[in-house]
């Protein structure tokens, strides 16, 4: 008999696995709406939607294994990372989704507010916060929107050998900056950036990618700590911030 595996669980959402079926429970139905619609639109492999009964979405497992995990060395080949870059390029070349995304002004306001909270609560040293806030500024420039995944963590890309077999968790998808997706995929795995860019097949501004590493980590640290995760574990968000010092 298949057992119930808790993949992730916190106060906003939970994902359970039973055999080859994933059950996603989300208090915010708009995220599930985006996920279902995005998977129907994108030209890359995604899970199959089996059924939906709010607040639960049932999807199939995708074959293969995750490209890696944050804080752990990736055993995937350079060719697999390049294939992930190629899949991202295919996504970014797709027509934009019909819902709006966030612009640099909105993100700048969110970042400033979060940095104020980090400084007030002493979650991180002030010099670490201020240095990374300076680095993050390079990401807050005008960009031409593309269809982005929006949360392209390394655990969300599955490969079998050197082939991408599926990309999961589309609830943050929408128009956005192409370099944000590339940055989130390589967060904590900077040594893989060259492979991803080779597969992506376009020149990218590495300073902007570094800026997104800082911005994403600053926004995530406090939330992760408050929801039972450890952003200070080796190779995770706090180490990403320290690397910019």
From TrEMBL:
> What species was this sequence derived from?
Actinomadura verrucosospora
Q: Which residues cross the membrane?
A: none
Q: What is this protein called?
A: Aminoglycoside phosphotransferase
Extract the Pfam families matched here. Answer: APH
Q: Which UniProt keywords apply?
A: Transferase
Tell me where in this chain the Aminoglycoside phosphotransferase domain is found. 40-207
**Highest taxon of the source?**
Bacteria
List, in alphabetical order, the Gene Ontology terms for molecular function in this entry.
transferase activity
The UniProt entry, under InterPro entries, shows:
AGP_Transferase (IPR051678), Aminoglycoside_PTrfase (IPR002575), Kinase-like_dom_sf (IPR011009)
User: Gene3D superfamilies annotated for this entry?
Assistant: 3.90.1200.10
* Record's keyword annotation contains Transferase: yes
């Amino acid at each position: 008999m298949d057992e119930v595996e808790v993949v992730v669980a916190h106060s906003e959402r939970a994902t359970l696995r039973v055999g080859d079926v994933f059950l996603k429970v989300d208090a915010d139905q708009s995220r599930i709406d985006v996920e279902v619609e995005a998977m129907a639109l994108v030209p890359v492999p995604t899970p199959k939607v089996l059924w939906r009964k709010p607040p639960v979405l049932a999807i199939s497992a995708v074959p293969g294994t995750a490209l890696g995990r944050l804080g752990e060395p990736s055993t995937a080949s350079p060719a697999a990372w390049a294939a992930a870059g190629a899949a991202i390029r295919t996504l970014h070349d797709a027509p934009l989704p019909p819902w709006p995304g966030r612009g640099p002004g909105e993100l700048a306001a969110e970042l400033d507010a979060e940095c104020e909270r980090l400084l007030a609560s002493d979650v991180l040293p002030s010099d670490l916060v201020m240095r990374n806030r300076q680095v993050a500024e390079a990401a807050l420039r005008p960009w031409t929107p593309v269809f982005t995944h929006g949360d392209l963590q390394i655990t969300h890309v599955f490969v079998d050998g050197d082939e991408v077999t599926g990309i999961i968790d589309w609830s943050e998808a929408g128009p956005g900056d192409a370099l944000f997706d590339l940055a989130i995929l390589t967060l904590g795995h900077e040594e893989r950036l060259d492979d991803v860019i080779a597969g992506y097949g376009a020149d990218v501004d590495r300073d902007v990618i570094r800026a997104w590493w800082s911005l994403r980590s600053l926004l995530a640290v406090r939330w992760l700590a408050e929801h039972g995760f450890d952003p200070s574990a080796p190779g995770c968000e706090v180490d990403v911030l320290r690397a910019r010092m």
